[in-house]
Design goal:
- The chain is an alpha+beta fold.
- Helices cover 31% and strands 15% of the residues.
- Strands 2-1-5-3-4 form a 5-stranded mixed beta sheet, with helices on both faces.
- The radius of gyration is 16 Å and the shape is elongated.
- It binds FE2/S2 (inorganic) cluster (2 copies).
């Protein structure tokens, strides 16, 4: 099958490759760029494990072709920590608040939470739950994921995180 050249910015660096028209973005990221943080958890576009940030939006990278991402600016979980290894506040928050168990959903969950907080610096619990409703977690029951996002929001706003009484 004829291949097309694609080029994009991924985690701040130029990336390019040859892809078939049917190559999904998730496969391009994982198999050609070796970015295996974005996961494949379903074949129905439901789980959100493949979520990346693309041109300022959360995108399930299994739902678009690599050629459609040509020219775009993409951030994956691999691009969240600083170059010196300092965790992004959301990564720190998921660790501190035990927002993961097996971790399979976590890269997608963090990328979704990142875009959520970019658009809403101080979301309510309801807004967080709605905001991550496209990302499924089989382990945690979501409670600690919500807390982790609240922790990150508080830290980004320079205020002390107070856990709500249960
Ligand atoms: S792999 Fe499940 S939504 Fe993309
Ligand atoms: S931590 Fe296991 S699926 Fe979310």
């Amino acid at each position: 099958m004829a291949k097309s050249q694609v080029s994009m910015t991924v985690n701040g660096k130029p990336a390019e490759g040859l892809v078939e028209p049917r190559t999904l973005l998730i496969h391009f990221l994982r198999e050609q760029l070796n970015l295996t943080g974005p996961h494949i958890g379903c074949d129905t576009s439901h789980c959100g494990a493949c979520t990346v940030d693309l041109d300022g939006k959360s995108v399930k990278s299994c739902t678009m072709f690599a050629v459609q991402a040509n020219g775009s600016d993409i951030r994956t979980i691999e691009g969240m920590a600083a170059t010196d290894g300092t965790l992004h506040v959301l990564q720190e928050a998921f660790r501190e608040m035990h927002g993961l168990q097996c971790g399979f959903c976590t890269p997608g969950m963090i990328m979704r939470a990142y875009r959520l907080l970019e658009g809403n610096k101080n979301p309510s619990e309801e807004e967080i739950r709605f905001g991550i409703s496209g990302n499924l977690c089989r382990c945690t029951g979501y409670q600690n994921i919500v807390k982790a996002i609240q922790y990150a929001a508080a830290k980004m706003n320079g205020v002390r995180f107070e856990e709500a009484a249960e």
